[in-house]
């Protein structure tokens, strides 16, 4: 039987070649763009991102969990809140920092953030001819929990980093490329996007970063508790923080909250809230045209001088000077 099949393949090689050419032509017609057999998937991912991002900065897509990012030049170090997500760079490189901890990632490495963190991002390799191109895929907690329940693996009882880079995995890049590629065929997004997102989460769970994500989705783990504390602080960031209430929502004592919050985020709950307030005030001034006084008041500051002092400490300049500077630079330097 084996020999008969091999002979049949040999005799039908010309027919297969005709079939392959016809199939590729149909595929090109369906996708609306040229594809090369054997094309490097990272290069293909870069091409798809480039097709769907106009200008520079962060571009939302028809898929709620997927954002595309482009920069045509290196950016200044810019504080921003990074939500729990997978960041895959298809071209260029970037540095992100939290406190004194810094990592650099590129097309050969991806970034995984397991809880919402105020980070400082800095695109370090980008040009008009070879722009920085990145795909950000938000982690869906409910989908993550479903996958964990299906697998049923135990969660290790150790504290793990919440910000880490890993060598790019070909299967992960392939799945991301297929996910972003759905933007070329919008009619397929509703049916296929959730399936590919689930595949991506599965590959993350079964990779070297699996323990980190298992901690995030496991009730009672320190990472899960701190994630709940972060959600509570973000909901009421403009109000005075009450540690006992935040600790109760997280299911921890106040002392345990302080210890594990700082161990995981490298800042205290109050410092975390302060970063949220200042970044939102910056957005209100830059995008909404608010004055420094109004922006500070809107995010919970009662003292204009305290607001200005803490703003300068984080962003390197007083509010008005910082906003004037930002208004003269590309949006990519602000949003990334």
Automatic annotation (TrEMBL):
<keyword id="KW-0805">Transcription regulation</keyword>
<dbReference type="InterPro" id="IPR009594">
    <property type="entry name" value="Tscrpt_reg_HTH_AraC_N"/>
</dbReference>
<feature type="domain" description="HTH araC/xylS-type">
    <location>
        <begin position="227"/>
        <end position="325"/>
    </location>
</feature>
<dbReference type="Pfam" id="PF06719">
    <property type="entry name" value="AraC_N"/>
</dbReference>
<dbReference type="InterPro" id="IPR009057">
    <property type="entry name" value="Homeodomain-like_sf"/>
</dbReference>
<dbReference type="InterPro" id="IPR018060">
    <property type="entry name" value="HTH_AraC"/>
</dbReference>
<protein>
    <submittedName>
        <fullName>HTH-type transcriptional activator RhaS</fullName>
    </submittedName>
</protein>
<dbReference type="GO" id="GO:0003700">
    <property type="term" value="F:DNA-binding transcription factor activity"/>
</dbReference>
<dbReference type="Pfam" id="PF12833">
    <property type="entry name" value="HTH_18"/>
</dbReference>
<keyword id="KW-0804">Transcription</keyword>
<dbReference type="GO" id="GO:0043565">
    <property type="term" value="F:sequence-specific DNA binding"/>
</dbReference>
């Amino acid at each position: 039987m084996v020999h008969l099949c091999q002979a049949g393949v040999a005799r039908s090689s010309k027919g297969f070649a005709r079939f392959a050419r016809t199939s590729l032509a149909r595929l090109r017609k369906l996708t609306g763009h040229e594809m090369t057999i054997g094309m490097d998937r990272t290069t293909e991912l870069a091409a798809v991102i480039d097709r769907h991002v106009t200008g520079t900065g962060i571009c939302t897509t028809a898929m709620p969990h997927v954002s595309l990012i482009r920069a045509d030049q290196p950016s200044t170090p810019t504080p921003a809140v990074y939500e729990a997500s997978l960041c895959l760079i298809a071209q260029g490189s970037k540095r992100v920092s939290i406190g004194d901890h810094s990592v650099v990632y590129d097309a050969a490495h991806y970034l995984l953030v397991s809880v919402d963190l105020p980070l400082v991002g800095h695109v370090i390799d980008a040009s008009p001819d070879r722009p920085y191109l990145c795909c950000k895929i938000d982690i869906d907690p409910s989908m993550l929990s479903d996958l964990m329940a299906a697998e049923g693996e135990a969660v290790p009882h150790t504290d793990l980093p919440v910000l880490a880079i890993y060598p790019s995995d070909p299967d992960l890049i392939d799945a991301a490329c297929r996910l972003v590629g759905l933007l070329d065929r919008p009619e397929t997004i509703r049916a296929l996007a959730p399936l590919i997102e689930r595949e991506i989460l599965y590959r993350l769970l079964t990779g070297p970063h699996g323990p980190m994500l298992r901690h995030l989705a496991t009730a009672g783990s320190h990472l899960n508790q701190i994630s709940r504390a972060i959600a509570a602080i973000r909901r009421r960031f403009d109000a005075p923080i009450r540690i006992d209430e935040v600790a109760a929502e997280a299911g921890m004592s106040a002392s345990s909250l302080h210890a594990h919050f700082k161990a995981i985020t490298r800042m205290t709950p109050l410092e975390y809230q302060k970063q949220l307030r200042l970044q939102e005030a910056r957005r209100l001034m830059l995008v909404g045209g608010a004055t420094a006084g109004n922006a500070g008041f809107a995010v919970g500051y009662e003292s204009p001088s305290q607001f200005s002092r803490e703003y300068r400490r984080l962003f390197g300049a007083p509010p008005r000077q910082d906003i004037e500077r930002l208004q003269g630079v590309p949006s990519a330097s602000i949003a990334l």
